[in-house]
Amino acid sequence: MANTRTTPSGTPTNVTQKHTRGGIGESTLRPDGTLKVTGEFAYSSDMWHEDMLWGQTLRSTVAHAEIVSIDVSEALAMPGVYSVLTYDDLPAEMKNYGLEIQDTPVLANGRVRHHGEPVALVAADHPETARRAAAKIKIDYRELPLVTDEASALAADAPLVHEGRDDHHAGHVPHPNIVHRQPIIRGNVEEARKRADVIVEGEYTFGMQDQAFLGPESGLAVPGEDGGVDLYVATQWLHSDLKQIAPVLGLPEEKVRMTLSGVGGAFGGREDISMQIHACLLALATNKPVKIVYNRFESFFGHVHRHPAKLHYEHGATKDGKLTHMKCRIVLDGGAYASASPAVVGNASSLSVGPYVLDDVDIEAIALYTNNPPCGAMRGFGAVQACFAYEAQMDKLAAKLGMDPVEFRQLNAMEMGTVMPTGQVVDSPAPVAELLRRVKARPLPPERQWESAGEGADVRALPGGLSNTTHGEGVVRGVGYAVGIKNVGFSEGFDDYSTARVRLEVINGEPVAMVHTAMAEVGQGGVTVHAQIARTELGVTQVTIHPADTQVGSAGSTSASRQTYMTGGAVKNTCEHVREALLEMGRRKNGSYHPAWAHAELLLEGGKVVTDGGEVLADIADILEDEAIDLELEFRHRPTVPFDLKTGQGDGHVQYTFAAHRAVVEVDTELGLVKVVELATAQDVGKALNMLSVVGQIQGGTTQGLGVAVMEEIIVDPKTAKVRNPSFTDYLIPTILDTPTIPVDVLELADPNAPYGLRGLGEAPTLSSTPAVLAAIRQATGLELNKTPIRPEALTGTL
Amino acid sequence: MDFLRPASWEEALAAKAEYPTAVPIAGGTDIMVEINFDHRRPEYLLDLNRIELLREWEVGEEVTELGASVPYTQIMENLRGTLPGLALASHTVASPQIRNRGGVGGNLGCASPAGDSHPALLAAGCSVEVESVRGSRLVPIDEFYTGVKRNALAADELIKSVHIKNATGPQQYSKVGTRNAMVIAVCGFGLALHPDTRTVRTGIASAAPTPIRAKAAEEFLNAALEEGGFWENGKVITPSIAKQFAALASAACNPIDDVRGTAKYRRHAVGILARRQLVWTWEQYRGTTGRPLEGAA
Lengths: 799, 297
What we know:
The complex is a heterodimer. Chain A is of the alpha/beta class. In chain A, 25% of the residues lie in helices and 25% in strands. Among the domains of chain A are: 4-41 and 497-636, Aldehyde Oxidoreductase, domain 4 (2-Layer Sandwich), CATH 3.30.365.10; 45-144 and 229-263 and 270-293, Aldehyde Oxidoreductase, domain 3, CATH 3.90.1170.50. Chain A has 19 helices and 32 strands. By secondary structure, chain B is of the alpha+beta class. In chain B, strand 12 (187-194) and strand 13 (199-205) form a beta hairpin. In chain B, helix 4 runs antiparallel to helix 7 (117-124). Chain B starts with a strand and ends in an 11-residue tail after the last helix. Chain A: InterPro entries: Ald_Oxase/Xan_DH_a/b, Ald_Oxase/Xan_DH_a/b_sf, Ald_Oxase/xanthine_DH-like, AldOxase/xan_DH_MoCoBD1, AldOxase/xan_DH_MoCoBD2, AldOxase/xan_DH_Mopterin-bd_sf, Xanthine_dehydrogenase_dsu.
């Protein structure tokens, strides 16, 4: 696969330490890679404990209802059942949890607000017994009217999903069924509209995507002798879980000890609590270890999804192709509980213009409370939905102006110095036009590749693939482009920090660094990168990565493309302090032997202290002897501020990140089936600490974007608000035959504010991939296609 | 749940007679999903995996006898020449792992309208050999599917094998799904030319309560081919014949709207597949393409 790495002129990346084997910039291999591909890796669902019980959750079968009665007697009477818990059994005064707004009941309190809401828990000595017992719990529901969309949520007589709201958004939202509203007003749209020679409008719909991580929610809670609990769990942020778990257990945080267990993917879906509290409650109630593992069906109800959205956009442009103004309204369906909805609103609004220069904008984004499944964090987080819509608008404008869609985008592309609609100045490289140039300059993949075999048609290269639906009949090629902008790190004034503990000591005569953080390794490669950073900063080859737990300070969330920047930055920062402490020790012990100790800039390389001229002063091991340097320090990115609630102004984001895609598709225009042939991408990553991981992230994000372009959607029945396809039979994710060649072009333009100049990268490819595929399908079919994912019905007029 | 493990076919028949509610299980690719998702809790499972004869096949002069448990992988690898339609259908089943376990017996036993082998079996023409302690009988495939997920088996009967007519002409199978592999059928279509009898047969999946044949389309095409002397002169099928055949195949459908697709789309897609397959098979029959247009191996 043709991956290229180029560093055009820009701010040079500043690296203080010289090269150490296995350090940053090398494609060192994941420590868990072989285990994972051979099936040996222990995921959280593989855990086992002597005498453990199995927990089972009973979930609501209806979306909105009053619970008239719950009868657990039959379940409790079953042999093998140790405990059945309902709301009445919750031990603490605090009975709710939530990422930002504590609106989610641990177990339903007299009312369920969405299909699949937890109502009761069972612990039994066998998972099947637990399942059967849960089925014997009798719940009498009295169904209530449903809120399923904006019209029903804001109707005059709309039932309130949450009554008596007192959260910090309650005061400024126009209706209690709106979680949060963020307008952004800049310039004067009415005036600017007068300059427009063309105006295009569009109404876009983004379907509900699932993270579809392969390792279902699972964990093991072990009651402690001190009345506390040890929880081993797959999550994205141990300390955020801890803050939500301890209060509802009625325990101080130090009595809830959490350790990360093997995580099988996350993509935002593990930011919220799933089985954590339930397993702890059952463990404390039975005084036995309790394991909970969701099956695939339950997993679809066990975590939040990507917000489905309706987006209305108006753009204007002059006849020479300059954007004049943009007006948009983004309605996100947050479902029954808030989860990350407020932050998703902030992102959707502040990134709604895309990577373009636009001085006159009028933006409004809201998230609704409805009785649909709760939605929250997923890779791309609000920016994905917006990108799908504004990129469709760019193509419409270019078409109306008779301009090339790439040239039109380049003409309006933002760059360093551009002012965002929030008033924030983009103060590091923003190579939007260059990324587009690169994907466009690539040669196109050859046409009619299915004929290359020479005999018959190779159906693998055709729409329909192995299903053998066409041998070339009806197939039309299309090419489409898109580019996107995503923020990195937690925004809007959030105190976003990471903690790293680093211990340097001599083991068997060799200096060894131990890196201890609470970072959730969810597949992103943090465990690889942390070791690389420690090698580079401390000049040692032996690095041990301590298991992630809550015995060290918070590492923040593995989300928002932030972990290499933040916890990687924290590891770098602590290593620098350890290095200083080591050199100080060296000066104290050996300073008198060589004048360089006092004067020269000293480096750590190959286990030794060397001068910048390369002269060896001492072995690290000889300096340390039997002492250890052990530091735990916090690291923060530069502060941000909240967006003004009326104007949306404020330096709300930490860093911006950009990717562009060119999609080449073959569409069977008669059957409405699509084969994505190639998804070429270019992305600026600031500095690639590990190119193999970088390319993997970009290809993975690109594929997840492809999924929601052509197949991935949770279908909720609007009449019942029930999920219709909670299985991998009917919720489809791309297979390798759906995944095209993904050539990756990596730019490294350093951000001077970031560790090593790096730029968070995990989410950006998920943004532009989807609209690029849609644009290509539009070109192939000539259809407008305002909804994603597209279905064969939409391409064949058979809806 | 009791797990019955007969060591021989005779023991299996005896067990089924004794426990008529027992659910036979071979590859388990359907049953285990139902059990895991708690959609089904059979009182007894009747494990057929120790019965070697169910995994055997025999290619005869005119008919291939295919054991109920012969995995799809074996069909793809060994029977592509004699049962090309079924081999193509086998290749569209799920993933390689599932194809190593699953076989035609399970498809017939579950009788889901979405089963991949049904259109190929209907188009090829076959009989299902079912047996009980009372004796054995051959059920013509046209009489086998009796309702949604129901078949002609009596409570004490087990599926032993399928007697499938060896191909005497080109056969095709296609299914529509919204993914390029590992996808359940939104709809499926199979077509077999039978030059020996100068007839064609079809099969449709997932577009009616049971797998069905498009009989009116077959009759129309049989007549049109006969009338035009096509079987002898090997002329190109006229667009109007292909169009009418497709329209009649569409009309044979009686589909529903569900989460996988609309009824309208299913009708539309079956028509497209019928037209394309007619061209593919007929062109192959005419010998103009030299080699069969097969799915990639």
